Amino acid sequence: MFVNIVKLENLLNNRNWSTYKLSKLLGLDYSYVHRVMKKEATPGSKFINSLIKMCQENNLDVNEYIFLGNALHINNVELRQ
User: Fold this and answer.
1) Residue 77 belongs to a domain
2) 73 occurs within a structural domain
3) Exposed (0-12), middle (13-18) or buried (19+): which is 33, by Cβ within 10 Å?
4) Is residue 81 part of a domain?
5) How far apart are CA 79 and CA 36, in angstroms?
6) To 10 degrees, what angle do helices 19-26 and 30-37 make?
């Protein structure tokens, strides 16, 4: 899973939220959230779970902020060789 940092930054700007406010809404340490937002840290399961919960509580579409990445191909011919 990946966090769409650009969308998250847009949310902060649109709602006039600071990274500190986001950290409080997520229930996570400010320094951790700051590092994730600056791409200095990889968001782990705690961040992802908190983001899902925050999206639900604020009527946000979680799919805008979290995505799985590239899908696997159904017919992977290379594995058969």
Assistant:
1) no
2) no
3) buried
4) no
5) 35
6) 120
Find tokens 């899973």 and name the residue: 1
Q: What is the pLDDT of residue 69?
A: 65
pLDDT in tens, 16-58: 999 999 999 999 999 999 999 999 999 999 999 999 999 999 9
Token pair belonging to 22: 């986001």
Name the amino acid, one letter, at 80: R
Q: Per the structure block, which two tokens stand in for 81? A: 């060789």
CATH number at residue 40: 1.10.260.40
Residue appearing with tokens 């409080």: 24
Give this prediction's pTM: 0.79
Task: Name the residue among 64, 53, 59 with its Cα closest to residue 27.
Answer: 53
Residues 6+ apart with CB under 8 A from 52: 62, 66
